[in-house]
């Protein structure tokens, strides 16, 4: 006769993943608004040459990294903290399941951000007023193409880093859940 372990949960908590992903997307949206506000004040930093263009690309990359790290930390932590603990599993299995929930949170948030960006781009291009003269005058220089390639690879690298951070944050959130970590003395709003 095969003995089975009693499980209080099937191992996945979709609600925790959705809540974590929504928090991550909301943080990303807020930080994107800050970036857009700064960007509106600039006169196309990538159209310039030399140091100004380099600083613009570096600043955008650092902001992207900061945004992904903070949103992944928050979303992963929430998913790990809210995930229902399975009493029938050992500590390693709990850690792996918490981490997978963090990774699922990162994945869902990433897909939502990409879909949102695609929708915004589609609306922007659908309602854009173009002028044939100005459209033909806007050619991409080699420096701009190189900056776009570097930025694309940096974006992919920060996305992978964000996945790892989300895993770690979910494990940490699960650890705080299991140890009943109390933050009231430091974080209470009472």
Explained architecture:
With 190 residues, this protein is an all-alpha fold. It contains six helices and no strands. The chain has helices at 14-40, 51-82, 91-126, 132-137, 142-178, 184-187. Helix 2 (51-82) packs across helix 3 (91-126). The termini are far apart. Residues 1-7 have low confidence and may be disordered.
Task: Report the helical percentage.
Answer: over 70%
The helix tally amounts to: 6
Nearest-angstrom radius of gyration?
21 Å
- Compressed to H and E, one letter per element, the order equals HHHHHH
Can you summarize this structure?
75% of the residues lie in helices and 0% in strands.
Defining key terms:
mainly alpha, about 190 residues, about 0% strand, 6 helices, single chain
Tell me the layout of helices and strands.
Blueprint: H1 14-40, H2 51-82, H3 91-126, H4 132-137, H5 142-178, H6 184-187
Helix pairs in contact: 1-2, 1-3, 2-3, 2-5, 3-5
């Amino acid at each position: 006769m095969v003995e089975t372990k009693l499980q209080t949960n099937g191992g996945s908590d979709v609600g925790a993943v959705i809540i974590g992903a929504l928090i991550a997307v909301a943080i990303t949206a807020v930080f994107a608004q800050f970036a857009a506000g700064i960007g509106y004040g600039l006169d196309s930093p990538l159209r310039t040459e030399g140091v100004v263009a380099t600083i613009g690309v570096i600043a955008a990359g650092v902001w992207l990294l900061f945004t992904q790290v903070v949103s992944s930390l928050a979303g992963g932590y929430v998913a790990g903290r809210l995930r229902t603990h399975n009493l029938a599993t050992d500590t390693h299995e709990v850690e792996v399941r918490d981490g997978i929930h963090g990774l699922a949170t990162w994945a869902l948030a990433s897909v939502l951000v990409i879909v949102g960006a695609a929708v915004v781009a589609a609306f922007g291009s659908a309602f854009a007023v173009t002028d044939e003269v100005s459209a033909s005058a806007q050619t991409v220089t080699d420096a701009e193409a190189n900056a776009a390639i570097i930025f694309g690879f940096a974006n992919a690298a920060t996305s992978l880093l964000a996945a790892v951070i989300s895993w770690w944050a979910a494990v940490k959130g699960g650890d705080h859940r299991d140890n009943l970590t109390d933050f009231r003395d430091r974080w209470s709003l009472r």
